[in-house]
Write a structure and sequence with these properties.
alpha/beta, Enolase-like, domain 1, TIM Barrel, 2 domains, about 35% helix, globular, binds magnesium ion, EC 4.2.1.113
Length: about 375
């Protein structure tokens, strides 16, 4: 597949409601899309960096800059998705930008050859069970209303964002209102210290599936210490930046579950390696989410159909985040999303919807 160039397209997609985590509040998804253009097909990748470097060091303006200045020029001679990471290996970091570029090339390649991303990655299911991530609210009543709405929509697992001052009480309230059968977990997005272990151990009473990333992303030994002091399984998100990092965290006892996000680890091919490392160690994985549009969602659903993804992911329906998505919407069916069956990532942007939310475009010829 001969590539002729790449388009960088920045979009601004309004969220249905503000989404608050321990990092901050978002009201609009400021996202970068990468379109790889080849002789016979084009492909899309979504960069999951946010406007500001709050989840990780990456942010949208930096992604645009590093793609334009270094990554796209390095694509000369690249013809397959598997060649992207080696071509970018000398550049440190910027995994979200790398992932978007690799996904775009991989999508174009698979479309050229009529193959699906799901099949390429090794998916074994045609639909995946879905959970939903519920942000921090102003009141418990507001939280209970939101959780009730998601359960009514059919979500099979609830994840509550927590931070100091919003942790034990909201979990207790959800358990009391909706019962012990709801699959429930929490995500702290690095908001605690290992000295909070006794406080966090209060969560053990609520039979949670897991507590996600309680400590700083670099504090692997802290997570291992915490895992000895709390019974709730520790899951890592921000800390797991590669298959090597996953192997180290597992062997140090820092986690017993792993959240896989392709943007965080540099792409879907590295995500598959993390899946393989975890399966080999008996560690369950699940698919995280970064408020993706339908483009990123499609690829995440394909990944979540691999056999080691044994817990429901944050692969929510499009309506969880967007009133109008830039692709045909993903709609929940009995708590599941169907794995796309079309070539490549299996979906394409709707031209009018895409144009309506486009902030800027830039064409880079190879
Ligand atoms: Mg998380």
């Amino acid at each position: 597949m001969k590539l002729t160039g790449f388009e960088l397209r920045r979009i601004a997609l309004p969220l249905v409601a503000p989404f608050r985590t321990s990092f901050g509040t978002e009201t609009t998804r400021d996202a970068l899309l990468v379109r790889a253009v080849g002789a016979d097909a084009e492909g899309w990748g979504e960069c999951v960096a946010m406007s500001a470097p709050l989840y990780s060091s990456e942010y949208v303006d930096a992604a645009i800059d590093v793609l334009r200045r270094y990554f796209v020029p390095a694509m000369t001679g690249v013809e397959r998705g598997t060649q992207v990471a080696p071509a970018l290996a000398k550049f440190h970091g910027h995994r979200m930008a790398k992932a978007a570029l690799e996904t775009a090339v991989l999508d174009a390649e698979l479309r050229t050859e009529g193959r699906t991303l799901a099949r390429e990655l090794g998916a074994v299911h045609d639909r995946v069970p879905c959970g939903v991530s519920v942000g921090i609210m102003d009141s418990i009543d507001e939280l209970l209303t939101a959780v009730g709405g998601y359960l009514d929509e059919g979500y099979l697992r609830i994840k509550l964002k927590i931070q100091p001052g919003w942790d034990i009480a909201p979990v207790a309230a959800v358990r009391e209102r909706y019962g012990d059968d709801v699959l429930l977990q929490v995500d702290a997005n690095t908001a605690y210290a290992v000295s909070d272990a006794r406080h966090l151990a209060q969560l053990d009473a609520f039979d949670l599936l897991l507590i996600e990333q309680p400590l700083d992303e670099e504090d692997i030994l802290g997570h291992a210490e915490l895992a000895r002091q709390v019974e709730t399984p520790i899951c890592l998100d921000e800390s797991i930046t590669s298959a090597r990092a996953a192997a180290a965290a597992i062997s140090l006892g820092a986690c017993s579950i792993v959240n896989v996000k392709p943007g965080r680890v540099g792409g879907y091919l590295e995500s598959r390696r993390i899946h393989d490392v975890c399966v080999a160690n008996g560690i369950p994985v699940w698919a995280g989410g970064m408020l993706e549009t339908g483009l990123g969602r499609a690829a995440n659903v394909a990944l979540a159909a691999l056999p080691g993804f044994t817990l429901p992911g944050d692969t929510s329906g499009s309506s969880r985040y967007y009133r109008t998505d830039i692709t045909a919407p993903f709609t929940l069916d009995a708590g599941h999303l169907a794995v796309p069956t079309g070539p490549g990532i299996g979906v394409e942007p709707l031209p009018d919807e895409l144009a309506a939310v486009t902030v800027s475009t830039e064409w880079l010829t190879l």
